[in-house]
Amino acid sequence: MELVAGCYEQVLFGFAVHPEPKASGDREKWTPVADFTHHAHTASLSAVAANSRFVVTGSKDETIHIYDMKKKIDHGALVHHNGTITCLKFHGNRHLISGAEDGLICVWDAKKWECLKSIKAHKGHVTFLSIHPSGKLALSVGTDKTLRTWNLVEGRSAFIKNIKQNAHIVEWSPRGEKYVVVILNKIDVYHLDTASVSGTITNEKRVSSVTFLSESVLAVAGDEEVVRFFDTDSLMCLCEFKAHENRVKDVFSFEILEHHIIVTASSDGFIKMWKLKQDKKVPPSLLCEVNTNARLTCLGVWLDSVTDVKESQPPAAEPSPVSEGQPKSSEKKSGDAEQKEARQSAPDTERRGVTGGSKKPTKGGGLVAAKRRKVGEMLEKKRKKKKI
Predict the structure, then answer these.
(1) How is residue 308 annotated by DSSP?
(2) Strands (E), 84-236
């Protein structure tokens, strides 16, 4: 298991974490050990994601860098976007989806590192995206005051919902039966079957990150030292605890070795791992912490083997078309046709890709290794000299 975090100082940190057996009567403690620092970007890091083999980072330098965690080497860069990379999400081990300030959402083949689909998603920036657990749908929010639903099976827009302000976070629940949309310090809870707001959670400060701990419990971090757990049904705060000395920038949760873990990263430079209690009204206990001495911006967890992860969540809810908002498709379908489309099983994403579309890479959307770029430039110069 490895904690990975990006920072303003353009560095990606990696810390291997070793769970230690608990002696009787002792408080459980895990040990983080510095594994690597990787300086591939030329500007601050803005997003990080991990699958079972790779860690990818996005930056204000408009590139996505790929780091091979098995070999501990730089695997190259993806250079399709023209703007800060705002969000990176893996779906399984075969696909990566990226969003950026150029308004594009790109679907990448995470084996060949080709751009399978490039979608002009928002008129402004793409601020965040989230993939439904089934892999059939994605939600995105942007600076055009819209919440957009994407059909990933066909690689097209499904619905657009106008919202009153620019949202900066959207997140599906583990089963995909609900999702949250964050605007400043307000968290709107939506239910998939109605596509309407069932309630609003109000945090004290602007929300910087959220993560679902279960289908009904949401961990919320903001521009403050405190992390809060909210019940998304009652909208009540279950508990809060001081996690850091400065604002919390990112939170991440997962289950491993029969432990439910939440990880926090802060502007104070610390990454901390917490063990969650069965009763979410009780604050978690600190397992370990590490000081990077950097201003952290984003956080991820790389798990060496997918078998380590405890699959505690029930199967994902089958997505049905979002009824509220305006349909994007040019041909208006009847309600029955829409329901039929939702019930159809998704194609084998491992074989055909999330979009189910052509495998042809989009121009300028392939893997660019630094050495390959330099060799290409040298050959081009030689050809020009020969022509002269």
Answers:
(1) G
(2) 85-91, 95-100, 104-109, 114-120, 126-131, 137-142, 146-151, 156-162, 169-172, 178-183, 186-191, 196-202, 207-212, 217-222, 226-231
Is 192:170 a contact under the CB 8 Å cutoff? no
pTM for the full model? 0.79
Residue 318 confidence (pLDDT): 52
Q: In this model, does residue 378 exceed pLDDT 90?
A: no
* Alpha carbon distances (Å) from 131 to 71, 216, 217, 339, 363: 28, 18, 19, 20, 25
Do the beta carbons of residue 181 and residue 191 sit within 8 Å?
A: no
Neighbours of 8 (CB within 10 A): 15
As a whole number of angstroms, the distance between CA 213 and CA 274 comes to 12
DSSP at 121:
-
pLDDT surpassing 90 at residue 229: yes
Residue the block writes with tokens 């900066």: 168
On the 0-12 / 13-18 / 19+ scale of CB atoms within 10 A, 35 is middle
Residue type, 7: C
Q: In the numeric block, which tokens belong to residue 168?
A: 């900066």
Q: Are 105 and 127 in contact (CB under 8 A)?
A: no
